[in-house]
Structures are given as structure tokens and as C-alpha cells.
Write a structure and sequence with these properties.
Elements lengths: L2 H18 L5 E2 L7 H14 L1 H4 L15 H7 L2 E2 H11 L10 H14 L13 H5 L1 E3 L6
Parallel strand pairs: 1-3
Antiparallel strand pairs: 2-3
Helix pairs in contact: 2-6, 5-6
Length: 142
Amino acid sequence: MRPARHVRIALVATFVLGLGAAQSPVSVWDGVYSDVQAARGAALYQTACASCHGDKLQGKGPTPALAGSDFVMNWSGMPVGDLFDKIQTSMPADKPGSLSRDQNASLVAYLLSANKFPSGKAELSSDAERLRQIRFEAAPAK
């Protein structure tokens, strides 16, 4: 066999094997955060977020609520990574970017918990690529 053919065969094999190993989509309904992580997020929320978003995530004035149907519908269909990035780059409003990636993952876990998405055993990752693989869906897939 010629070397170019070897390369083509290797590329096809890699592509086919990669398809076989593809994971099914993950959503917020699959238990993507832990209760312990959400509890850490709840405590952090009270010190870093509640002054603008309200003690119970209800929003205040022009600041949006972080719980309820409007919040869920606003993010539905998007990757959880988009919500994480919004918090990471623009919150808290008076000190954007001042919280660590792990702290922001805990805050997202708390928001998921407060919006009645089920918890799981593992903590929500703070890795951008992994967060992009999780879909924020208003309702579980049927």
C-alpha cells in the first residue's frame, strides 16, 4: 500500500470509531451537579449575588430573576456553558470576573437546584468544553 492510502484508511477508521464513541446528549435533567455543590453555591449566592438578584432569586427592579419560568425559558435550548460564561465574565456586576471558575460552577449548580432540575452524584464541571456539552432544557426529553 502507498503511504497516502494508509493515511486515508487511518482517518476513516478514526472518524468511524469516533462516531461509535460519541456520547448521547446530556441535559440539565440528567443530574449534572451535586447537592453539596449547590449548597456551596447557595451560600456564595447570598454574599455575591443576592444584593442585586434578591434573597430568593426573584430579581429586583431591572435585575432579572434567576428562578422561575422566565429564567428557564430564557436559557432553554442553550448550552449550560453559555450561562456559566455570562456569570464568569459579567458577574457580580460591581466586580465582573472576580469569582473563580469553581465558584461559578457552584453558583450554576445552585441555580439549577433552585429551578428544580435534579441533582446527581458528580459536581458540575468548571471546564468550558464539558459545560458546552450540557443542554439547558426547559422540559425533559421524551
